[in-house]
Design brief:
Elements: H1 2-21, H2 26-44, H3 47-57, H4 61-83, H5 88-114, H6 133-163, H7 168-196, H8 206-249, H9 251-260, H10 273-278, H11 282-307, H12 316-332, H13 351-368
Length: about 375
């Protein structure tokens, strides 16, 4: 249970943060509400939460709220796929119809729970007969609708998973797996409720099996819905770490070139040095700036490197050995006598490929001097 909470609550908070950054994204809104309802519904199923809620709101209210949240989860999951539909008019009509049916069922089970005899309160409707028949029937109807909604979402999820590529396809497959487990768990609830009304008895452990399956399905649903954004964020984190390390490794080369050619320094951010250092995204700006300043300085000193016998394809170690001498020559003869020569050029295009060559030169410079 603790592991499930560790999965559900951060997933809900992360989706809320994403929605805060993109409040007009309707698909993201649907996923956020879906994950949030899933997390709260799971929490209400825990005895440590259910008992206090029943104590404050009345017996049986935690089960009612949990069922309502599961209905909302299914509705918003359907809405997520409808938002992705190309036929917006048809999708809007479908969302309205599903929303009206969900509201009708929520009103029905709420009315039934509040108007049930007091002695029937506090009983799970599929566990005991003290629940009035009309209450049981309404909850069975709610679960049948929930089963239908989960089945629709499962069909669409499986279809989108076949059409997608990683990491989206992996997230959709996890979502489909969770919906399949959830469908089995939900199907057990009305079955147990109807069997408890007859002379037949549910199989031993059937109710517990449904609870366990639901406890597995809900966190897995949150993981599946969050998986693409989690992978994207981890990729961004690896890129951030790589550029942070490259920025530091470029310091020996940047320092010697900056002292020689301070005019090549790019304009800094309007933020203070301390604020920029603390900003996570500033790593990318500082990385770009340092790479460009190192390349500009190397271009400026390249004629003097060529005069000292360093060719275009020279290794980083060869360039590092004569770079200080070339910089001193540049000071004594600022006009230069040769055109710029390409030094430490990457085999591929792109700033990151250029940075790798400059980092190799910087590391060689640190070893040499």
């Amino acid at each position: 249970m603790a592991v499930a909470l560790i999965v559900l609550l951060p997933a809900a908070l992360w989706k809320m943060y994403q929605l805060y950054k993109a409040p007009r994204d309707r698909s993201l809104l649907a996923v956020t509400v879906c994950v949030t309802c899933t997390a709260i519904s799971f929490c209400l199923g825990l005895p440590a939460v259910r008992v206090p809620v029943d104590g404050v709101l009345g017996p049986g209210m935690a089960q009612l709220v949990s069922t309502v949240l599961l209905l909302d989860t299914a509705y918003w999951l359907i809405s997520f796929y409808l938002h992705s539909s190309t036929d917006r008019r048809r999708a809007r009509r479908r969302r309205l119809r599903e929303g009206q049916l969900t509201v009708l069922i929520v009103v029905g089970i709420t009315w039934a729970t509040l108007n049930a005899p007091r002695e029937a309160h506090g009983f799970l409707y599929w566990h005991a007969n003290p629940r009035p028949l009309e209450v049981t029937v309404l909850f069975v109807v709610a679960d049948l609708y929930l089963l239908y909604a989960v089945g629709v979402a499962l069909r669409w999820t499986s279809r989108f998973a076949r059409m997608s590529v990683r990491p989206t396809a992996t997230g959709l497959r996890l979502t489909a797996l969770s919906l399949g487990i959830m469908a089995v768990a939900i199907a057990l609830r009305p079955l147990n409720a109807l069997l408890s009304r007859t002379d037949a008895h549910p199989p031993p452990g059937a109710a517990q099996a449904g609870t366990v399956l639901l406890a597995l399905a809900l966190p897995l649903l949150a993981v599946g819905l969050s998986y693409p954004s989690i992978i994207t964020r981890l990729t961004a984190l690896r890129l951030w770490q790589h550029r942070r390390n490259a920025y530091r490794k470029l310091r020996p080369l940047w320092a010697i070139l900056h002292r020689a050619f301070p005019e090549n320094a790019l304009r800094r951010s309007t933020r203070s040095v301390r604020r920029e250092a603390l900003c996570v995204r500033s790593v990318h700006r500082r990385y770009y700036r340092r790479v460009i300043e190192c390349r500009d300085g190397l271009v400026t000193v390249s004629p003097y490197l060529a005069m000292l016998g360093v060719g275009e394809g020279a290794s980083p170690e060869a360039v590092a050995r004569v770079l200080p001498t070339a910089l001193r020559a540049c000071v004594t003869d600022p006009a230069g006598t040769s055109p710029p020569v390409g030094m430490a050029l990457p085999a591929d295009n792109g700033l990151d490929a250029d940075a790798r060559q400059l980092v190799a030169l910087s590391q060689a410079l640190a070893v040499e001097h």
